[in-house]
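Hi F.,

I've been meaning to write this up properly since the lab meeting, where we talked about keeping a consistent format for the predictions we share between groups. The idea is simple: the sequence comes first, exactly as it goes in, then the structure tokens exactly as they come out, then a line or two of notes. No screenshots and no reformatting. I'm using this chain as the first example so we have something concrete to point to.
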Amino acid sequence: MSSVSRPLNDDEVYSEMNKMVAFIKQEALEKAREIKVKADEEFNIEKAKLVRQESINVEEQFQRKVKQAEVKQRIMTSTLINKSRLQVLQARQEMLETVFSGAQQELAKVPEDKEKYQKLLVDLCVQAFVHLNDSRVNVRGRKADLDLVKKAVVEAVEIYKKNGKQIEATVVESSSLPDSVLGGVRVSALNDRISVDNTLQARLDLSSDRMLPQLRDTLFGQSPNRKFYN
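Output, unedited:
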């Protein structure tokens, strides 16, 4: 016996429609959940990228600031070291100048002892004669030492001649040496074209130059950066 389909009544139609609405609603909810999950995943991924990039930027900025601070610190340290070195060098130079000034003051007292100074003038003249090795020389001294220089030249000529050499020494009175030379003589030959400066100031300057390294070692100790020693 075959069944014959019949049209749905209102209740059945309403029921079917409710089922369809529920199905569509469920599908919509599931789709919405999928969209939300996917959106959350994409958001979290993008957020992680932004956080990671920002962290990198912050780290780079931090490293730049650290490097800038290190450079600034090195510059400041170098400046302070250089300033300290300059202060030390200046203090050392002032001490050396004090030593040389003291030596200069002591040399200025040498002419006060006439007897010793007379002998010194003789020695300085003989030394100059030997160095120039000329038969005619001019001798100059300070105006205050004129008489002593004349006597010293006479004695020095006699000593020089004992070595079998002839010499004529003239004391030049018209152009005396300034008092700043402290004493001693300046001897010249060949019409004053060559000369030997045996003044006390010249001898002090020469000694100062020669003794400067030794004097520095004595006063300040040997420099750790110095590799060679005389």
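Notes:
The CA atoms of residues 107 and 190 lie 30 Å apart.
DSSP finds four helices and four strands in the chain.

If this format works for you, I'll send the rest the same way.

G.
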